[in-house]
Queue: 2 jobs
Job 1
Amino acid sequence: MALNDFAPSSIFPEQEVQTIINQFFLSMATEQDDFFILLGSIQGGAMRDEIVSLLLTVWVKRADRKYKNIGRQSPYRQAYFSRRGCTFEEYRELFDPDHLEKHYRHYPAFEFFAIMDASERRKFTTNKTPNVESYIEDLSLAQLSALNFFF
């Protein structure tokens, strides 16, 4: 199975991205709001990071469903994970001290960030907090191509 068709739009059509963003904003409207108009774009900050986190959760679930047959021994596995990224929940697992080094390969975030041992994990997590801002920043630094699709 090649990853030629791993274009973001083949997994997550742009119209659906906009629908999820609209639903996010509508969920913030209160009963006192007479109406809610969606205008403009999101440039940065906590709200943008929350939306991107939400979109990436949907992205990862769809990518996993589409490429569920990529096994551990597949020559495409590394390419898949470099495009898949990880969800915020998976990212938070990097900071969980209960995960043993021998089990790192079972956690998608460890695989995405190529963390193979405890020293790499310490280096990666030192001076970071497991929050959405750090998550988005780390995905950007890792050059996750899906982020470009959402901006």
Job 2
Amino acid sequence: MGASSVDDLLVKWKKRVGAIVFVLVGIILALAFFLPRNTEIPALAMGCYRSENAPDIAVRSDSLNVDQGDIGETSASYQKDNIGHALLTAKPLLLKPVAGGRYKFFLDDRAARYVRFSPGPPAALEIIAADGMTVVYRRVDCGADLGAKVR
């Protein structure tokens, strides 16, 4: 076997390995892109949340309900990312300061469409308001008034 025969075999082998690697990478990327992600809100996150100075929030399996008449309910999906867990809302909700140190939700197309859970078990939600403050919502018992909103 001459040197050129060995070189030809190496070139063919490299092409085959390259093609196999290319196909495998393509399959992995296709699976990552097309496989459905679980966007249903986990049961641990569902429930009622209250802040000292903002409207109450009720989280259901597929929606977020703000206890503020002009906002009401919006569909939501669950997302896990490299920072933590979040709810992506269909409506662009922006939490803005109003009189008396309180906050109110407004629909604003410039607003982020997510509500972030604090690290660890979903015992709190954190929303960054328009003034840069983080408004913390603590998990509470739904009771009669909020209970209807999470069922």
